[in-house]
Structures are given as C-alpha cells and as structure tokens.
Design a protein that fits this description.
By secondary structure, the chain is α+β, with helices and mostly antiparallel strands. The protein has three domains: about 200 residues, 3-Layer(aba) Sandwich (Phosphoenolpyruvate Carboxykinase, domain 1); about 270 residues, Phosphoenolpyruvate Carboxykinase, domain 3 (Alpha-Beta Complex); about 80 residues, Phosphoenolpyruvate Carboxykinase, domain 2. The protein contains 16 helices and 31 strands. A hairpin with a 5-residue loop joins β15 and β16. α11 packs across α16. About 50% of the residues are buried. The structure holds ligand TSX and manganese (II) ion. The site of manganese (II) ion (MN) has 2 residues, from loops.
C-alpha cells in the first residue's frame, strides 16, 4: 500500500476484500491531479482511452456493447424483510445475495490493481456531507469519481482511527489471467451483474459493470438509495432533483429544486438561461439534492456531487449552450462518436452531419449508416466548476434555502403547462402520481405512460409507501416555511402533433409565474387539478404564440382527467397498506372536484 491507513474499520475492510478478490496490488487514492493523469496514462496505454486532439485534457471511452446503462432489473435492495424494500424494488435476502456475490468476488481482481477511493458526498467536513470509500478494480471508475465526488486524502484524515464511512465495493468482474491481453472495456455478462444495497448496514456491493451509476457508487447507490434510507431515519430528504437559483430583475433570489423522470431535460433546465430580460439563472446541481431543515425552520439544499454525468445526445448550443461550454476541455466522454480530426460528436449536436465518424462501437460511420453514431445513453463527465453559470454558493456547506419544488413529466396531452398544488399534501400527491410518456431513450414501447413518483422509482432505497409518508411528515415539520409545490409539462402537443410550448429558455416565463405566486403577486384560478395561471398572468412578451395555443396549453379537460383516476388508483394499489391515508384522501378529493 502506498499510503498508511489509520482507520480501523477501513483497514479491516481492505484486508477482507484483498483476501476475497486477490488483487495484484493495492493503491490508496489521494485525489490529486497527478493521480488522475496516471489513471488516464494507464487507460490510454491499455487502449481503453482515446486522447482527443480537439479537446484539451479530454478522452473518449467506448464501453462493451453489453454495458451501456444502469441495469435496473439487476439492482437490489436487500433488507431482512422484503416489505422494507417495497413493491418498486427488486429484493433478495441479504445472506443468500451475499453468498452469491461472494462466489463472484472470489479472485475477481486477479491480475488487476485494487483502488481504494476515499470520497465525500458534499463539501468535505460539511455537517450535511457523508463519507464513502469505494474499492474498485477500474481505473476508469477512479478517474470518473475524481470528477463526480470529492476524492481526497483529507477524507482519510477526517475518518481518523474510529469514524464511520459507507463501504462501496465494486468490481468489473473480469480477472486478467497472467500473460493475457486485456480488452478495452472489461466487464461481466449481464446475468453476473449485481448492483446490491444493504441499507440496514449502509453497505453497497456492485459487480460486473463498469458503466455510470452501476460503477460510480457515490451517485445513485450512495447519494440516493442509501442516503434516502438515512434521510428517513434522520429526518431529512435525499432527492433526485436539480437545484437552481433564479434571480429576478429586483435582485430577489429564488431557489428551486425540481424532479423529472429521464428524457425530460433536467440538465437543460438546471443550466437554462432565461429569455426574459433581467432574470438570471445559476446552476447548483443537475441530479441530486440533499435537504435538511435549518435553524431558521426552512429547508436547505446541497448538491452532494461535484460534477455532471450528463447524457450527450441532444446536447447542443441550441438546447444547452452552458453544458456545451462546460465540456470544452478536461472531460471524460463515454460512447460518443469520434470525428476524423479528434473530436467527439453525437446525434443532435449539430444540424449538419459529419461526413465520416468512428461510431461508439469503433466502426466507420457515414450519414448513410443506419446505426446511431453515438449510443443514445452516451455521456460526458465534467467538473461542476467548469460550468460558466455555476452558482457561487454551489459548495456552500450551509446549502441554499429552497422556496419552490417542481415536479414534472413528459405528456403530449391532458397535463397543462403549469399548475400549483393547493397545499403540501396535494403537492405530495402530485409528486407521488408524477408520470411521463416513454421516449426512444427509454426501454420498451414509445409513448407508454409510466408512473415515476418523485422521479425516485429507480432510486428509493426503501418502501415507497413509507417514502410518501416521510414527505408528508416533512411537510408537517416545515409548516408555513414549507416550499410551495408546482407541476410542469413542457411537452404538450397540438392535435397536429406539434409542441405547443417553445420550452428551453422560454421556460423562464413559467418560472417567473411560479416566483410571483410565491410573492402572492401572480393571479391563479382554481381548477379541479390545482391552481392555473390566470389569463394574462404568464409573461409572453416577445413571443407570438396564438391565443388558441395558450388556451390548449392551460386547458384542463375533466373528461380526460376522469380517465386518469383509475390509472392513479391502480398505481396507488401497488403500495397496499403502506400507502398513506392522506394520499387516499387526496385521490378522493380529486375525484370529487372532477365531479
Ligand atoms: O430539455 C428540454 N426542455 C427543458 C429545457 C430547459 N427539452 C429537450 C427534452 C429532451 C431531453 C425540450 N423539448 C423542452 C424543454 O423545455 N421542450 C421540448 C419540446 C420542443 C422541442 C423543440 C422545439 C420546441 C419544443 N423547437 C422549436 O420550437 C423550434
Ligand atoms: Mn438522474
């Protein structure tokens, strides 16, 4: 070992993993630039990383075609009672799951170096932050963790001899026989992949995948699944939310936390630049929010991450110029296409297609090719400090006070552009019933309605019925200091199938109405589903949207909404007696209001 470790639990765990996985060497990470560069050097030498001539300090990786996304059906919440994991999670008994995984872990790091990564989710030393240690046999994971989390020897100092941390064990599941040449992206076959969580002992075991949330265990595994369980236990919130600061022309700041299912443009909203004159928007985070009630009785949010692991396809100077500027240099690209002059490209980046590319599988690509050049889930990993509109308070250990929660989804009909919840319980009902139509970015049929409560279905580490109750309890504690709750849908279409709302920068007009609601300045009218903008209350200056279109965008059709009720009922029934009575009441009231 290159550094002496003083923490007793960490030393014992390292010895245990070494005995089980049998790596050739053990290396303790310090988070330095030198260390990052040495990982890249190693990965380039192995033929895994391709330095990009056109982007300083940037590299392209191509994954194995079988290892391109999170594997939800191989993801487990392993608690002693299955009821604790609840109906939205895969469950296996902890003892038998550990037995199975130990079988795979045995000798799995032979021929490889085992890296020990001490990291902090949240600013190092902040009272909201949590310390994790990831053990991995992937130098690609080490490099990505450097960007996405705070990796530092300071974390080891903070651990001292006796302090606790969250152990995150990861192996790509591909031992290297001596003398054999490595492949560019070693991993295990799908039936050997396991992403396992043991929330009763704050423990994560991942095997077989090197991709994203399967392997960068600080993100979805720790900061959402394990943290959500800790948050319930300790009375705070760990949410799948972006955080942004909106400043109005008078200089009043609003802090917004928003949850959307995948393919709704969460990163685009997190970095959105308002089209309205005098309004300013700054990014605090694009994926995860940890929120605690402060001494002032308000909810304060931090972004526990330090980078963006964003979907590349669809990102362009039109859809998200701030992201494009964030990824000018010092980026890890995964499964993007490679241009002939040593840059990356993906579908949606430019209007004009390059004449020739190497696609994400390493094959020649021309505009005539049928296959996509970049994988639809291709990613960039970039440090948050590189974002031109990162908020100066993004690392403030005290967090930012949340004024507004927004839930949303992609709906081509039925759901209006924006509406406000009548009160906290109704807002929790909106979060709990959030739904989105599937796109080509999802698996399965396109256009199906999928319920994704609070955008947390894949990320809640415990019974989702209890999670709804936790949200109700938080509202009780926050009282009149609770954030106001809104629901948005940027994706409503006309009968001719055209998007009715311009979206993107013009979403600032919706956010303005929301802020003015908080100030009790903007008008709203009661509808069966919530409070809608009064005629003329949305600032549409400089746009020319026909008034019929605005009418359609804000329309609530009781007939269409009555058809939603049985679907919501069926969704709620899944939770059985864990569904809070207060949400049953909310559904009854909706039914009554619809008449
Ligand atoms: O991210 C999106 N947002 C949020 C932006 C802050 N997208 C992309 C979603 C895929 C990830 C959107 N797409 C948004 C949106 O608000 N709206 C739409 C639909 C749309 C698409 C293209 C246009 C308009 C709306 N183009 C023109 O009107 C020219
Ligand atoms: Mn996410």
């Amino acid at each position: 070992m290159n550094i002496e470790v003083k923490n007793r639990k960490l030393n014992a765990w390292i010895s245990e993993v070494v005995a089980m996985c049998r790596p050739d060497a053990v290396y303790i990470c310090d988070g330095s630039k030198k260390e990052y560069d040495s990982m890249m050097e190693k990965l380039v030498a192995a033929g895994s990383g391709i330095p990009l001539e056109k982007r300083a300090g940037s590299y392209l990786f191509r994954s194995d075609p079988s290892d391109v996304a999170r594997v939800e059906d191989r993801t487990y919440i392993s608690t002693s009672a299955q009821d604790e994991a609840g109906p939205t999670n895969n469950w296996l008994d902890p003892a038998s799951l550990k037995e199975t995984m130990k079988g795979f872990y045995k000798d799995c790091m032979k021929g490889r170096t085992m890296y020990v990564i001490p990291f902090s989710m949240g600013p190092i030393g902040s009272p909201i932050s949590k310390i994790g240690v990831e053990i991995t046999d992937s130098p690609y994971v080490v490099a990505n963790m450097h960007i996405m989390t705070r990796v530092s020897s300071k974390v080891l100092e903070l651990l001292g001899a006796e302090n606790d941390f969250i152990p995150c064990l990861h192996s790509i599941g591909a031992p290297l026989e001596s003398g054999r040449k490595d492949v560019p992206w070693p991993c295990a076959p799908i039936e050997q992949k396991y992403i396992s969580h043991f929330p009763e002992e704050n423990l994560i075991w991942s095997y077989g995948s090197g991709y994203g949330g399967n392997a960068l265990l600080g993100k979805k595994c720790l900061a959402l699944r394990i943290a959500s369980v800790m948050a319930r236990r300790e009375g705070w919130l760990a949410e799948h939310m972006l955080i942004l600061r909106l400043t109005n022309p008078e200089g009043r700041q609003y802090h917004i936390a928003a949850a959307f299912p995948s393919a709704c443009g969460k990163t685009n909203l997190a970095m959105m630049q308002p089209s309205l004159k005098g309004w300013k928007c700054e990014c605090i985070g694009d994926d995860i929010a940890w929120m605690k009630i402060g001494e002032d009785g308000r909810l304060h949010a931090i972004n526990p991450e330090s980078g963006f692991f964003g979907v590349a396809p669809g990102t362009s100077y039109d859809t998200n110029p701030m992201a494009m500027d964030t990824i000018r240099d010092n980026v890890i690209f995964t499964n993007c296409a490679l241009t002939d002059d040593g840059d990356v490209w993906w579908e949606g980046m430019t209007d004009e297609l390059p004449a020739h590319l190497i696609d994400w599988k390493g094959r020649d690509w021309t505009p005539e090719s049928k296959a996509e050049a970049a994988h639809p889930n291709a990613r960039f990993t970039a440090h948050a400090s590189r974002c031109p509109v990162i908020c100066k308070d993004w690392e403030n250990p005290a967090g930012v006070p949340i004024d507004i929660f927004i839930f949303g989804g992609r709906r081509s009909s039925v759901v209006p552009l924006v509406y406000e919840a009548f009160n906290w319980d109704h807002g929790v009902f909106l979060g709990a019933t959030a739904a989105s139509e599937t796109t080509s970015a999802n698996i399965g049929a396109v256009g199906n309605l999928r319920r994704d409560p609070f955008a947390m279905k894949p990320f809640c580490g415990y019974n989702m019925g209890d999670y709804f109750q936790h949200w109700l309890n938080m509202g009780d504690r926050l009282g009149n200091k609770a954030p106001r709750i809104f629901y948005v849908n940027w994706f409503r279409k006309s009968d001719e199938g055209k998007f009715l709302w311009p979206g993107f920068s013009d979403n600032s007009r919706v956010l303005k109405w929301i802020c003015e609601r908080v100030e009790e300045k903007a008008g709203a009218q009661k509808s069966a589903i919530g409070l809608l903008p009064l005629d003329g209350a949305l600032d549409l200056s400089g746009l020319n949207i026909p008034s019929e279109n605005m009418k359609e965008l804000l329309q609530v059709d009781p007939v269409e909404w009555k058809a939603e009720v049985p679907d919501i009922k069926a969704h709620f029934d899944i939770f059985g007696d864990r569904l809070p009575e207060r949400l049953v009441v909310q559904l009854q009231e909706l039914r009554k209001r619809l008449g």
